[in-house]
Design goal:
single chain; 366 residues; alpha/beta; two-stranded parallel ribbon
Length: 366
């Protein structure tokens, strides 16, 4: 289904040099799309964008989404039919130390993308990616639904809630489903894991960095429960959402959707580490006893994805062991086989994921 709808399409991915953006760009290229990216910089070293050689495979645009004029010029030069907006300041703990950049990037950046689409109806579909942190987390045990209260107590969560509110206002004011209007939807997902993530203060990259050097990783919140999902799970949802927007599906246009794992994948941090350690015999960890000095972190977080199931027939394809296996095998390949073709290995993982989805009879993969 994806290939039939993305082949030959001009697709722009903001934040394409990031973890999720590089995976999404790789998948879109494999589907035959003409892909361009727009990002302010490379997130660090190593960088999945460079590891996968995407600078040779797609149009690589450098710029800041906060700069409206530069963004407009770049997008005019490519004339995208579809935009996946992922560019963001994505780290919770960094947002505490740099709230201004976080709010400007996550809110003003989204505003600038919406403004571009408002004045350029040639953009047929716009998928705005926010976060599961956009909800006001009150630590209840059931999943957050798309109509639950937005906003959080920390700068990152609040910035994502603000981005959702801006998107809602623009959708209602300028993008009501009429002939020629850009079809827009927002997507909320979080706790995404996968090969090629090197971000600071994320549990999997922290483990991999430490274990690859033979060090012991320090664990802050071993009992905190998270809805872990492989990066390809929400990306499949974004891609299918894009297809439905291109089709002008009135049930989907203007809506928000959660993309999360099955409830069995909602496990504590310690359980994730223990499963990941199966692929790293030298794995060692210790509990950080000074965590009382750290910034507060949510104890429990889960999304209700019933709306995506009903409207899109979307549901996750992987069980928890399969999720962690893909993660562990990607990093083992990277560290155990210097010079390995990680682009080819990544494509094989995408194929494996699609096979899991097909075996489960998920209609969006057919």
């Amino acid at each position: 289904m994806f290939a039939n709808n993305y082949k030959g399409k001009r697709v722009l991915v903001t934040g394409h040099t990031g973890f999720k953006g590089s995976w999404l760009s790789t998948w879109l290229l494999e589907l035959g799309a003409n892909v361009a990216g727009y990002s302010v910089d490379l997130p660090g070293t190593p960088c999945n964008f460079e590891i996968l050689g995407l600078n040779r495979r797609m149009q690589h645009g450098v710029g800041d989404v906060r700069d409206r004029a530069a963004l407009r010029d770049a997008l005019d030069g490519f004339s995208p039919e579809i935009i996946f907006h992922l560019a963001a300041q994505p780290l919770v703990r960094r947002a505490y130390s740099d709230p201004l950049n976080t709010f400007e990037t996550n809110v003003v950046g989204t505003l600038n993308i919406l403004e571009y689409a408002r004045h350029n109806p040639a953009v047929r579909a716009l998928v705005l990616i926010t976060s599961d942190k956009c909800y006001r987390n009150v630590d209840w045990v059931w999943g957050y639904r798309e109509n639950d209260t937005l906003g959080g107590e920390d700068p990152y969560s609040a910035s994502k809630g603000c981005a959702e509110l801006v998107s809602y206002a623009y959708t209602k004011s300028y993008f009501e489903p009429t002939a020629g209007a850009t079809a827009i939807a927002t997507a909320r997902a979080g706790n995404v894991i996968g090969g090629g993530d090197w971000a600071e203060d994320r549990i999997v990259p922290d483990c991999i960095r430490s274990w690859s050097k033979g060090d012991t990783v320090s664990i802050r919140s071993p009992r905190s429960t998270r809805p872990w999902q492989h990066v390809l799970e929400p990306l499949s949802g974004y891609l299918y959402l894009g297809v439905e927007l291109l089709r002008r599906n009135q049930q989907v246009t203007g809506q928000a959707y959660n993309f999360g794992p099955d409830i069995t994948v909602n496990v504590p941090v310690l359980a994730l580490i223990q499963e990941l350690a199966k692929y790293w015999p030298e794995a060692r960890w210790a509990i950080d006893q000074t965590n009382h000095l750290a910034r507060p972190e949510a104890r429990f977080l889960k999304l209700c994805c019933d709306k995506a199931l009903v409207d899109l027939k979307w549901q996750p394809a992987l069980e928890f062991p399969d999720t962690v296996r893909l993660v562990g095998e990607w990093y083992r390949q990277y560290f155990s086989n210097p010079g390995a073709n990680m682009h080819e290995f990544t494509l094989k993982q995408i194929e494996t994921y699609c096979r899991h989805a097909s075996d489960r009879g998920l209609p969006w993969i057919q």
